[in-house]
Amino acid sequence: MLDHMGITVSDYAHSRAFYERVLGVLDYGIVMDVTKEQTGGYEGCGFGPDGKPAFWIGTGQTASTGLHVAFVASSRAAVDEFHAIALQHGARDNGAPGLRPHYHPNYYGAFVIDFDGNNIEAVCHRPE
Q1: At what angle are helices 12-24 and 76-88 packed, to 10 degrees?
Q2: Is the full-model pTM beyond 0.85?
């Protein structure tokens, strides 16, 4: 249903490095950069698989807070690695990797809070 989404971050360089590491585990990479010169003020980058930016971070007046974004993981091991890498790079734990059967029997997710207070999740829906 969604084509793409974006969040404003308080420290673009720091957040960019964080998301490159964390989303790289899920096979999402930076596929597009936009400069202040191109946009008239906004600087940002878009992450996605297969060359299409689906998740954007960038500069702006107010940083996003309290947003929940869930990224698809190809395996439970990728969820585990996402969580570990995020914590190593400064995110706060918001739910260790594990099954959440109240959503459905194969829902395996992990949650972290990024530098701007957003709840970032990796989830695998496959049976182990």
Answers
A1: 150
A2: yes
